[in-house]
């Protein structure tokens, strides 16, 4: 019997069982978040220190997601160059993806930014920013699976403003994904590492790699 899963309720189990999504067993599959990271300039380090101070000021409060987007995520995207050509940003308002057996459809609305059709950014839809990334990862992967750009790897970032995870998806048969480690702003120097990964992925996407 046909069934519909709301996009905001989708889990990794749903994607694995109904869409054959598999996590990569190849240690070389997603090296972009670990290797070839660009050095940051002194000016970028100063901006990072400023963002750390902003985060420290916000972290003692229950921060709403719009504040997270404005105060932390948007400056990082700016520093990584995502607001300049060749990049362009669109907003995905609805997703619909059907399982191979035709019996299950994921449908719904998730606020997610799409950069140059190959990089998905999801700030977790929760009333409070401390919500777990485990909710956001399958949501982002759902959008990536629905992408028509099936001939090249797709990338994503899921964040609640204090924790960040990067994703890579290859739409093989079956589709394969991998995730980075979880970056924590509470840890020293990890905000700088997040910016390095963003700049690295910006270079990959811009070059068409």
Describe this structure in words.
The protein has helices at 12-19, 42-59, 65-79, 133-145, 190-207; strands at residues 3-6, 22-23, 89-92, 95-98, 104-108, 112-115, 119-123, 154-159, 163-170, 176-179, 183-184. The chain is of the alpha/beta class and 209 residues long. The strands form 2 sheets. Strands 2, 3, 6, 7, 8, 9, 10 and 11 form an 8-stranded mixed β-sheet that branches. Strand 4 and strand 5 form a beta hairpin. Helix 2 packs antiparallel against helix 3. The longest helix has 18 residues, at 42-59. Residues 125-130 have low confidence and may be disordered.
Number of helices: 5
Summed up, the domain count is 1
Oligomer: single chain
Percent helix range: 25-40%
Overall mean pLDDT score?
Answer: 86
Principal-axes geometry comes out as: globular
The first-to-last residue Cα distance is 41 Å
Low-confidence runs? 125-130
